[in-house]
Amino acid sequence: MDSEKRGRVRVSHVLWAAVCVLVLAAGTPAAGAHVPDYQIAQSSVARDLTPEVSEETLAALVAGNTGFAFDLYQAIRREEGNLFFSPYSISAALAMTYAGARGETESQMVEVLGFLPQEDLHAGFNALDLSLQAQTTDEDGGFQLNIANALWGQLDYTFLQGFLDVLAANYGAGLHLLDFGGAPEASRLTINDWVAQQTQEKIQNLLTPGTITTETVLVLTNAIYFLGKWATPFEARFTSGGVFHLLDCTEVTVPMMHERMYQDYAVGEGYQAVQLDYRGCDMSMVLILPDPGWFEAFEASLTAERFEEIVAALSWTYMDLALPKFTFEDSFQLGETLPAMGMPDAFDANVADFSGMDGTRNIAISGVVHKAFVAVDEEGTEAAAATAVIAVGTGMMPREPIPVVFDRPFLFAIRDKATGTVLFLGRVLDPS
């Protein structure tokens, strides 16, 4: 216990050099934007840019993340309308939270989130994050990927030095000091401004009024922004109005892109699938088109294992592809979903054990908020997402191409082919 006490750090001092570095890295705020007003308590531990992680550990981490991605999809798919989220962002934010979890709270997070033991998970996330972001931006902006993490702690609250060190070394996350107790609304706006900057202004107002209260002591955030141009773009002159068949048997007219091209393609029981590569990186979009009348049954059967089977079945094929343009955003409150999936203790002030954060059992999660944006057009895809975990005290060209027409509800995922990481996952029920 004495060593634990000596390991604590009181985050009331200011390291202005860290503030300058953070603001410069975050970019210049847009004209008229709220300029964040916060202090930083930065761990003296630098981020580990060469983590020693075995291929087996990295594969196990990706498998666990992918399993959680499709488990969560099944838990939230009953929401009406289009659906889109970043399982990677949610896992990353909860991984930072997991660093402070102990006892049964920790065990439940392992079970639901597919996490590895503490000693493997954080180095694994670090290696995966560095691998993903090593795919640098094209000179002409054909590919961009930005992943950022940050902690937001109550001014003068006492956190364990070891907790801060783990997050600094593996997530590059400094602790921003805010006065939740005295200025919860201003603190909320500051976090929202950071998220907007990290996502090229695509994710606005992640935290809605009332999300941050005077009881808030810690907020853990992850933001991800993706911009990818198709390796084989669609020609805009071929885009025209097309019929899209909705689940209720009605129809809408939407802009439908058309192109004859070689792409990876698979056909199986109840579905067709196409993989579209992005230029200059290992990223791709996998689109899955259930057969007419099979959408609900297919969606209910979609697991990580089945998704991997579909990906494994893809092969280079000449096709006449028709795909609707679409743009939408989605948001979720996961404070009821995650307990229902099997990790209730983290949200229960009576039993939550995040003693790895502050040496006490006085912290519980009060909410997990997620918001995502996606736009698909002739040139490529733009996608962004952010997550906040809020803690309170207490071959040969064939003669004719295969027609593949996405004119009915379909599912899609954006994945890193090199590691198998699913960055984004969603469905389109109505592209209009």
Characterization of the model:
The chain has helices spanning 2-6, 16-26, 55-76, 87-98, 103-113, 118-133, 161-171, 184-198, 295-301, 304-313, 337-341, 355-358; strands spanning 8-10, 39-41, 83-85, 143-154, 158-160, 175-178, 216-229, 240-245, 251-268, 271-277, 283-290, 315-324, 326-333, 363-376, 380-393, 402-405, 410-416, 422-428. The protein has 432 residues and is α+β, with helices and mostly antiparallel strands. It folds into 2 domains: 2-228 and 328-393, 2-Layer Sandwich (Antithrombin, Chain I, domain 2); 232-324 and 396-428, Roll (Alpha-1-antitrypsin, domain 1). Strands 3, 8, 9, 10, 11, 12, 16, 17 and 18 form a 9-stranded mixed sheet that branches. It has a 7-stranded mixed sheet with strand order 2-6-4-7-15-14-13, with helices on both faces. Strands 1-5 form a two-stranded antiparallel sheet. Strand 8 (240-245) and strand 9 form a beta hairpin. Helix 6 (118-133) runs parallel beside helix 7 (161-171). It is globular. The termini are far apart.
Percent range of helical residues:
25-40%
Mean pLDDT: 89
Please compute the radius of gyration using only Cα atoms. 22 Å
Whole-number count of domains = 2
Structural class: alpha+beta
Write the layout of secondary structure elements.
Blueprint: H1 2-6, E1 8-10, H2 16-26, E2 39-41, H3 55-76, E3 83-85, H4 87-98, H5 103-113, H6 118-133, E4 143-154, E5 158-160, H7 161-171, E6 175-178, H8 184-198, E7 216-229, E8 240-245, E9 251-268, E10 271-277, E11 283-290, H9 295-301, H10 304-313, E12 315-324, E13 326-333, H11 337-341, H12 355-358, E14 363-376, E15 380-393, E16 402-405, E17 410-416, E18 422-428
Parallel strand pairs: 4-6, 12-16
Antiparallel strand pairs: 1-5, 2-6, 3-18, 4-7, 7-15, 8-9, 9-10, 9-12, 10-11, 11-17, 13-14, 14-15, 17-18
Helix pairs in contact: 3-6, 4-6, 6-7
